[in-house]
Design a protein that fits this description.
Layout lengths: L1 E6 L2 E7 L6 H15 L7 E9 L6 E9 L5 E7 L2 H20 L1
Parallel strand pairs: 2-3
Antiparallel strand pairs: 1-2, 3-4, 4-5
Helix pairs in contact: 1-2
Amino acid sequence: MNYTENYKGIKIDVQSVHLDINESTQQEIRSAIDKLSKFTHDINAVDVYFKTEGSGGTAVSVVGMRVGIPGPDVFAEEKGEHWIPLLKDVTDKLVRQLKKLRQ
């Protein structure tokens, strides 16, 4: 499932393989953008992807996020079991990168 939306002037593009993005996950993505916006006001696009690597008992969930800002974009990815905690971990990684860029 893929979907695109405009949230507070930021283009969000979400891609997922064999996964439906429900309203609660969409809200978590918006919350992540709100958190990132505290560290830079120049976000023009956010790409989020959800995928599963492997199969059966060895399957691992992967969440990645690219934040489009002037200059080089920031990107983070995390692997684990559950989508929402992974999304929060990715957001925290991106916050650290944005803080470094501001220094």
